[in-house]
Amino acid sequence: MMEFSANHASIWATVPLTVDRYVALCHPLLHRQISYPARARRIIAVVFTLALASGVPFFWWSDMWRVSHAPNNLDTALVWTHVTIIYFLPCCIFLVLNSLIIRRLRKRQRQQMCQDESGQQLALPGKLGKSTAMLLAVTSVFAILWAPRTGVVLYHLYVSSVHNDWRVHLAYDLANMLAMLNTAVNFFLYCFVSKPFKAAVRDVLLFRGAPLHPRRPLHHQRNAANASTSSISSTKRSQREITPLSPKRADIKM
Known about the structure:
10 helices
């Protein structure tokens, strides 16, 4: 149960990241409204809870190393549920969302190049190319590394048993190794493309916690200072208007 729960959590933890990238690039105003740390923590908790719950039915997963009889209906249902959860469904989500993101990035690049004829247009294609390459890499790595495990499990279900053929046993072990490699590869991909992710990893490895009261950038401090100065001047002005004139000043004015 824990093995299947860990597999499901490893894969489905990447799905909210892909959804978040899609909303951030294609619907930036909506992303500012719905994306904040508290909601992210709730989504992570929901993903891990569902992954743990999804591993419970696999308590009845057949021991393919020792069972030599043909798979029954329960084995067939569990195998197809497993390959749908770990491969077919997330792979479809990755392909659809990343295709929409890449399409939006290319459309934005064409619009920017049509509007700008100066040197500013050279900075955007590099940034879009890096984002596009990262999205293609994440999707391709997932599809390639999890495909052998899916194929071997289905081959064991319909063609040959591990108990009867040692080569299927070896192929299943190698397929599991490749599938587990996907998580490690994604970690380095995110470190390569995301500076905040890289900085967070550096802080964790060096046992450095984030400051409780982070310093605001200089322009925010200037804006705050300007706002406070303007509020003080407006307060003084309103007090000057409200305060009545003394008798001497009134006489002089008259």
